[in-house]
Each structure stands twice: as structure tokens, then as C-alpha cells.
From TrEMBL:
The chain holds residues 1 to 322 of 808 of the full protein. Residues 213-312 form the 3-hydroxyacyl-CoA dehydrogenase C-terminal domain. This is 3-hydroxyacyl-CoA dehydrogenase. It comes from Paenibacillus plantiphilus. Residues 13-210 form the 3-hydroxyacyl-CoA dehydrogenase NAD binding domain. Belongs to the 3-hydroxyacyl-CoA dehydrogenase family.
Length: 322
């Protein structure tokens, strides 16, 4: 990295993927004073869940427009104390296909596309081709292998690449997990911690590149145990949320409200990731896919982002992770 602290603040960033997290991260970076390029990725295929729900490829751009709408809604909702009026004007939206070359002008690129290793690897390959020398690249993965994501990329890319995992919603959740890959420059980690802490107001923890890192390894396990208990004791979704919400001091993060906020497809990816990669038999068993989640996802009911998950009336604020 060739510099010594304190580092110059980041002025120009890009976020790839304008979904639940990408839109929120873009808003947070813009609020911190950065100019942000928010690029969605034009879809080329349906997920099995979308195909099963009877969607066609023509429906997918609608979802991208919804992401743009979500960003606009974020803009309107920000309390004055947290966000200044000018921050939305600092965000330029586009798509990776048409605007990829603009990545050459930014200092930091945040990858926030769907939680699938093959998709992330393909997007990172395109980022590598477009990035300028010295541009930092981070992934917002919830817990896929950072090392596997960097495979096949050149040394310069690998030195400037790490996991920087924001939590949902990015403006409120205070934690960022930093996850170095095998070739991450140690000084990059120091710089990222500085950016996250001083520029973005976050607390930082450095995690090992293990399945789901720290917070999701524990948090997702807790959710799965809760769903298992619901089944065992014949409880309803409302009863579980009554028990695991305000009554436990979590006014906005009751189990199923949080699942809707996170997105059921994302949660299933996160669950699969531990089950497929853990070397602990008991843990693999605990991370079985809950049939309740699979049933909803198969109908395309993915939570707040599709307008329907465990709850129909959506749009409430909450906090969570994945
Ligand atoms: P999302 O489903 O809201 O958005 C996914 C984005 O990926 C969209 O921009 C979509 O256009 C793009 N995408 C979908 N299929 C694609 C494909 N085949 N090729 C290229 N791009 C594709 O997902 P969300 O929740 O924003 O998650 C993004 C990342 O952030 C994931 O790695 C997820 O694990 C992580 N994350 C999610 C959290 C959550 O609470 N939802 C919290 C923290 C991290």
C-alpha cells in the first residue's frame, strides 16, 4: 500500500449489486461524503426459485427497478441528524454491462451481488479487468470463502482484496467484519479498518476466513434452533416473534421479522454454506435447510424485497445480519 496512517479518506467508491445490501451500503458511503457509483448486474438467468414461481427473465429488470426504488425510499427516510440533504446526489446508478469502465476511476469497489460463489467469481473477474492499479476491492459476502473468491485473479488484485462484511441495515448496524484472504496485504487491512472506523463510524472485528465468519455462524445457528423449537412445540410465527422480539429486548429483530428483512434466499445460501463446508458433524446437522423457509422461497416469497415473506405487510424497519 506504500503509505502510513492516517490514510487519506476515500472519495470515490463503487458498489456492485443494487439489492438489499448494495443500496444500503451505497447510501451509507454517500452519507460519509463519498461519490458512489451503484451498478446493478443485468440478470442472464432465473434462479430455480424464480423459475418455480413462474417468473420469466422479463420480470427480472422489474426487480432492479425495485432496487432503484428502494434507494429512493432510503433517501426520503433518512433522519436529518444522520444524513445530509446532498448525499443522494452523490450516488450515480447504472449497470455493470454499460458502465463497467467507470470502475477505473474509483478508489474502492464493494461487491454486493447474490450470495453464490460462481456469480461472485464471475463479477470479480470483470472487476479485475476494469479496476485501476491500487483500487481496493471488498466483498460483502455473508460467509463464503474469501480465498475461493480470489482464486484465478492476479497477484495485484489478490493483494488489494478482502472481505468487508456490513450488516443489515448498513446505516444502523455498527459492526463490519474484515476478512483477509491468503494474499491480502496486511496494510490493506489496516487501511480498511481506518476507513470503516473513522470514515464510516463502524466498529471493526477481524475474522478468519471460516464459513460464515463470526456473527453469522452464531446468529444463523440461533435462528435455526428457534425454528426447530417452533416446530417441536407447535408454535406459530406470531408466537415466536412475540417471544423473541420486544420480550427479549429486541424490539425490531424478532426472528421472523429479521428473516424477512434479510431475505429468505440469502438466508438459505448462508445456511447451505456452513452445512457444505463445516468439518463438524453436529454443526452440519444443525444447519439443515428448514422446510418452512424452503416452502416460502419456492413460491418466490423472499421477504421484504419481494413484498412477501413470513409477513405480507412489509416495509418496517429492523436490524439484522446475514
Ligand atoms: P439481494 O438479493 O437483495 O441482491 C442481490 C444482487 O445480486 C442484486 O443486485 C441482483 O441483481 C444481483 N444478482 C442476482 N443474481 C445475479 C447473477 N446471476 N449475476 C449477477 N448478479 C446477480 O441480496 P442482498 O441481500 O443485497 O445480498 C448481497 C450480498 O450481501 C450477499 O453476498 C449477501 O450474503 C450479503 N449480505 C446480505 C445481508 C442481508 O441481510 N440481506 C446482510 C449482510 C450481507
Amino acid at each position: 500500500m506504500g503509505g502510513s496512517t492516517p490514510f487519506a479518506p476515500i472519495r470515490r467508491a463503487a458498489v456492485i449489486g443494487a439489492g438489499v445490501m448494495g443500496a444500503g451500503i451505497a447510501a451509507h458511503l454517500a452519507n460519509a461524503g463519498m461519490k458512489v457509483l451503484l451498478l446493478d448486474v443485468p440478470p442472464t438467468a432465473l434462479t430455480p426459485e424464480e423459475a418455480q414461481a413462474g417468473l420469466t427473465l422479463a420480470d427480472k429488470p422489474v426487480r432492479n427497478r425495485l432496487a432503484a426504488k428502494a434507494l429512493a425510499a432510503l433517501t426520503k427516510r433518512q433522519p436529518q441528524a444522520l444524513y445530509d440533504n446532498a448525499y443522494a446526489a452523490r450516488i450515480t446508478a447504472g449497470n455493470l454491462e454499460d458502465d463497467g469502465a467507470k470502475l477505473g476511476d474509483v478508489e474502492w469497489i464493494v461487491e454486493a451481488v447474490v450470495e453464490r460463489l460462481d456469480v461472485k467469481q464471475a463479477v470479480l473477474e470483470r472487476i479485475e479487468a476494469a479496476r485501476g492499479a491500487g483500487t481496493i476491492v471488498t466483498t460483502n459476502t455473508s460467509g463464503l470463502s474469501v480465498a475461493a473468491m480470489a482464486e484465478g485473479r492476479g497477484e495485484s488484485f489478490r493483494n488489494y482484496f478482502a472481505g468487508a462484511h456490513f450488516f443489515n441495515p448498513p446505516r444502523h448496524m455498527k459492526l463490519v467484519e474484515l476478512v483477509p484472504g491468503p494474499d491480502t496485504d496486511p496494510e490493506l487491512l489496516v487501511r480498511l479498518a481506518d476507513i470503516c472506523h473513522r470514515q464510516l463510524g463502524k466498529g471493526v472485528v477481524v475474522a478468519k476466513d471460516t464459513p460464515n465468519f463470526i456473527a453469522n455462524r452464531i446468529g444463523t445457528y440461533g435462528m435455526l434452533v428457534t425454528i426447530h423449537a417452533m416446530r417441536r412445540y407447535g408454535l406459530t410465527v406470531d408466537e415466536v416473534d412475540a417471544l423473541t422480539g420486544p420480550a427479549m429486548g429486541r424490539p425490531k429483530t424478532a426472528t421472523f421479522r429479521m428473516l424477512d428483512l434479510v431475505g429468505l434466499d440469502t438466508l438459505l445460501h448462508v445456511v447451505d454454506n456452513v452445512r457444505e463446508r463445516s468439518d463438524d458433524e453436529q454443526e452440519r446437522a444443525a444447519f439443515a435447510r428448514p422446510p418452512e423457509l424452503e416452502a416460502l422461497a419456492a413460491r418466490g416469497w423472499l421477504g421484504e424485497k419481494t413484498g412477501q415473506g413470513f409477513y405480507r405487510k412489509l416495509g418496517r424497519q429492523g436490524a439484522g445480519s446475514a
